[in-house]
Write a structure and sequence with these properties.
By secondary structure, the chain is mainly beta. The chain contains no helices and ten strands. Strand 7 and strand 8 (about 75-80) form a beta hairpin. The protein starts with a strand and ends with a strand.
C-alpha cells in the first residue's frame, strides 16, 4: 500500500527558509515522478513543484526562483527547499506520485508569519 510521510514544516518569518521532506513507500520510488502540492485553508490543493525520475523539474510560477525540488532515490525521499518565504506560502504541504494516488499523507503545515 502506498504511503507518504511529510515532515519539516513549521512557523517561519517572512523571508525565511524551510526544507520539507517526504518519504514514500509501497511502490518502486525511483520509477515515479514525484510532486509537491499545497492546500491553504478554504482553497483547493495546488501543484507546487515536481521532479521526474531522471531529475527534470517543474514548478509553479508563484514559487519559481524561491523553491527547489530534489530527490534521493536511495532514501525514497523527495525534498522541497523553500526560501524567501511569503505569507501566501502558508499552507499544508503534501507529496504524491505523478499522477497522484488516492492515498495522501497527513501533510506538513507551513506557516509564514511575523
Amino acid at each position: 500500500q502506498v504511503q507518504f510521510v511529510e515532515s519539516g514544516g513549521g512557523l517561519v518569518q517572512p523571508g525565511g527558509s524551510l526544507t520539507l521532506s517526504c518519504v514514500a513507500s509501497g511502490s518502486i520510488f525511483s520509477i515515479h515522478a514525484m510532486d509537491w502540492y499545497r492546500q491553504a485553508p478554504g482553497k483547493q490543493r495546488d501543484l507546487v513543484a515536481g521532479i521526474s525520475p531522471s531529475g527534470g523539474t517543474i514548478c509553479a510560477d508563484s514559487v519559481k526562483g524561491r523553491f527547489t525540488i530534489s530527490r534521493d532515490n536511495a532514501k525514497r525521499t523527495v525534498y522541497l527547499q523553500m526560501s524567501s518565504l511569503k505569507p501566501e506560502d502558508t499552507a499544508v504541504y503534501y507529496c504524491n506520485f505523478r499522477p497522484p494516488r488516492d492515498t495522501w499523507g497527513q501533510g506538513t503545515q507551513v506557516t509564514v508569519s511575523s
